[in-house]
Specification:
- The chain is an alpha+beta fold.
- It has a single domain, classed as Porin, CATH 2.40.160.
- The chain is 15% helix and 58% strand.
- Strands 1, 2, 3, 4, 5, 6, 7, 8 and 9 form a 9-stranded antiparallel β-sheet that branches.
- Strand 5 and strand 6 form a beta hairpin.
- The longest helix has 17 residues.
- The radius of gyration is 16 Å and the shape is elongated.
Length: 160
């Protein structure tokens, strides 16, 4: 039962991301897609689907020993002006501040399931074809018990 529930949740989370932006003929098109890894909590595979220069969806899939499965999906807004002066000093790429909201689901070896809401904020260095980022995400856990927790990490994605 747990495996079926996990499969359904994964299909809903990542499947909903593909319907973010469509054309009149039904073709799904994103401006850019990035995939890579994130180190921290969670440690896993990171994917980012850019709608345009200012908005994107991102998600992480993590498998581990104590937390057997963790998935989150966020909608992100990017602000290029906030760090513009620092970005100019880099001479290449863009330094971008981002923020957004999303949700997570996790399964633990203790047979408990966690659900919650996330509010990620971070800084991303966009240098073609890579994205380097650091993020912190306060989260409100809804199950198995209400409470505040934090996620965060350092990641790199390759854009294609």
């Amino acid at each position: 039962m747990k495996t079926l529930f996990t499969a359904v949740v994964l299909c809903l989370v990542f499947g909903s991301l593909t319907f973010a932006k469509g054309k009149a003929d039904g073709e799904i098109k994103f401006e850019r897609v990035g995939a890579g890894i994130v180190v921290g909590d969670p440690l896993g595979i990171s994917v980012k689907l850019w709608n345009n220069k200012e908005t994107a969806f991102d998600g992480v899939l993590s498998l581990g020993q104590t937390r057997t499965l963790y998935v989150h999906a966020d909608y992100l807004l990017h602000n290029y002006e906030l760090l513009r002066d620092l970005s100019k000093e880099l001479n290449s790429g863009d330094l971008v501040f981002y923020y957004g909201g999303g949700a997570y689901i996790s399964f633990w070896t203790t047979n408990s399931m966690g659900l919650g809401a996330r509010l990620p904020v971070g800084v991303e260095y966009l240098v073609n074809p890579f994205d380097l980022y650091i993020e912190v995400a306060p989260a409100l856990a809804i199950t198995p018990a209400m409470g505040l927790t934090f996620y965060g990490g350092l990641g790199v994605r390759f854009d294609f």
